[in-house]
Amino acid sequence: MPEFLKLLTPQNALNLWFENIPFSFPKYEEIKTTDGLGRVTAEDIKALHPMPSFSKSTVDGYAVMAKDTYGASDSLPCYIKLTGEILMGRQPDRMLVAGTAMLIHTGGMLPEGADAVVMLEHTQSSRSDEIEVCRAVAPLENIIQVGEDVRQGEVVIPAGTRIRPAEIGGLMAFGIQTIKAAWKPKVGLISTGDEVVPPESTPTIAQVRDINTYSLEALVKEHGGEAIRYGIVPDRPAELQKVLHSALSECDVVMITAGSSASARDMTSKVIQEAGKPGVIVHGINIKPGKPAILAVCDGKPVIGLPGNPVSALVIAWLFLPALLERMQCLQTTIIKKQIAARLTINFASLAGREDYIPVKLTMEDGIYQAEPIFFKSNLIFNLVKADGLMVIPADANGLNAGDMVQVLFF
Ligand SMILES: Nc1nc2c(c(=O)[nH]1)N[C@H]1C(S)=C(S)[C@@H](COP(=O)(O)OP(=O)(O)OC[C@H]3O[C@@H](n4cnc5c(N)ncnc54)[C@H](O)[C@@H]3O)O[C@H]1N2
Ligand code: MOO
């Protein structure tokens, strides 16, 4: 019986693999903040000054002392002397004194002495030097105070944060043009198989174009790694040995596709085992698709042996590689895979003890997502192209019934 028939759950497989990887603090590089999307910060970033650095209005209206408006209503307005206008981007040229108001615009700097802003809609101006206030304001109403967003010196983006558009905006608010980011792990991609030819060539009748190198390259890029292609290796162990050796010396992670299963030409596990210590950690995971997957460590470097079937290769890589890249870059917050709850449209059988990831089409009915399973074969990439997401059938389920709610993950 091939060794890989001793199947682990995906979570146990991941844990066991990670226990054998010597994670260390990541190398880092200085990058332009504008290039930072998707990168991981390698140091704490602190507020250089309070944000905002001046107190401002959140509405168009009149800066006032709140107490001057107390009791004001539509039936009993109060009258306040208008002493000028605060121009945008300019510091007010005078203090606000009791019993006076100044015209202010959204984002304008509050004059000293003012503690609230009356909205334009709650005033009338019958005379050019006076306003009629029809509604009272409380202190701090319609203003943003100095440091209300963040205090000076506060850690605003901790080390190990994935940079999203919001972080880029926050960094620019401080004028931080460069950041230290964890280096992008280099992921070597090796395709194997005598029948596999490059996409630019025309396959003969029993050949196939290389899908996996390219779908995996895109996945690596999407999850913050740098992909390095090592081409297609024929089904000869010596050839794979040679290419794997180069990839291990040049990359931080290596992914090999195909040759993971049970036949005599499935050499991947053996070649990985001989490429470095401790070698193969997991061969076989209780999952569909992707059961024959291999997780290994060769002299400190993680290696993944993916099934050749393009759907299996992509699903397994999508389940394991992002988690690895996150750990390698010391990401502090696990990225939760985007998912929604949906109602299953039909009865769906599955094997108890095995976690299934089934491609589904999503539609919306009465405000609830409906998940229609695609009866897929893991060799057929367009089964995945046609899917909106992957429905998870947990290991403890012995199939699901039409109407059951399922989680659908977006890959
Ligand atoms: N007797 C058994 N046979 C198989 C088992 C099993 O348990 N017992 N498992 C099946 C499962 S599940 C999978 S998944 C596949 C895994 O196969 P391998 O990893 O050994 O890969 P190959 O056999 O070389 O290829 C499978 C399939 O994928 C095509 N392929 C390979 N590389 C590429 C590529 N880069 N781009 C596009 N397509 C590729 C290849 O031509 C084959 O059609 O094994 C089952 N068999
Ligand atoms: O894992 Mo295989 O992926 O079931 O075809």
Automatic annotation (TrEMBL):
<dbReference type="Pfam" id="PF00994">
    <property type="entry name" value="MoCF_biosynth"/>
</dbReference>
<comment type="pathway">
    <text>Cofactor biosynthesis; molybdopterin biosynthesis.</text>
</comment>
<dbReference type="GO" id="GO:0006777">
    <property type="term" value="P:Mo-molybdopterin cofactor biosynthetic process"/>
</dbReference>
<keyword id="KW-0460">Magnesium</keyword>
<dbReference type="GO" id="GO:0005829">
    <property type="term" value="C:cytosol"/>
</dbReference>
<dbReference type="InterPro" id="IPR005111">
    <property type="entry name" value="MoeA_C_domain_IV"/>
</dbReference>
<dbReference type="InterPro" id="IPR036135">
    <property type="entry name" value="MoeA_linker/N_sf"/>
</dbReference>
<keyword id="KW-0501">Molybdenum cofactor biosynthesis</keyword>
<dbReference type="InterPro" id="IPR005110">
    <property type="entry name" value="MoeA_linker/N"/>
</dbReference>
<keyword id="KW-0808">Transferase</keyword>
<dbReference type="GO" id="GO:0046872">
    <property type="term" value="F:metal ion binding"/>
</dbReference>
<feature type="domain" description="MoaB/Mog">
    <location>
        <begin position="188"/>
        <end position="327"/>
    </location>
</feature>
<keyword id="KW-0479">Metal-binding</keyword>
<protein>
    <recommendedName>
        <fullName>Molybdopterin molybdenumtransferase</fullName>
        <ecNumber>2.10.1.1</ecNumber>
    </recommendedName>
</protein>
<keyword id="KW-0500">Molybdenum</keyword>
<dbReference type="Pfam" id="PF03453">
    <property type="entry name" value="MoeA_N"/>
</dbReference>
<dbReference type="InterPro" id="IPR036688">
    <property type="entry name" value="MoeA_C_domain_IV_sf"/>
</dbReference>
<dbReference type="InterPro" id="IPR001453">
    <property type="entry name" value="MoaB/Mog_dom"/>
</dbReference>
<dbReference type="GO" id="GO:0061599">
    <property type="term" value="F:molybdopterin molybdotransferase activity"/>
</dbReference>
<dbReference type="InterPro" id="IPR038987">
    <property type="entry name" value="MoeA-like"/>
</dbReference>
<comment type="function">
    <text>Catalyzes the insertion of molybdate into adenylated molybdopterin with the concomitant release of AMP.</text>
</comment>
<comment type="similarity">
    <text>Belongs to the MoeA family.</text>
</comment>
<dbReference type="InterPro" id="IPR008284">
    <property type="entry name" value="MoCF_biosynth_CS"/>
</dbReference>
<dbReference type="Pfam" id="PF03454">
    <property type="entry name" value="MoeA_C"/>
</dbReference>
<dbReference type="InterPro" id="IPR036425">
    <property type="entry name" value="MoaB/Mog-like_dom_sf"/>
</dbReference>
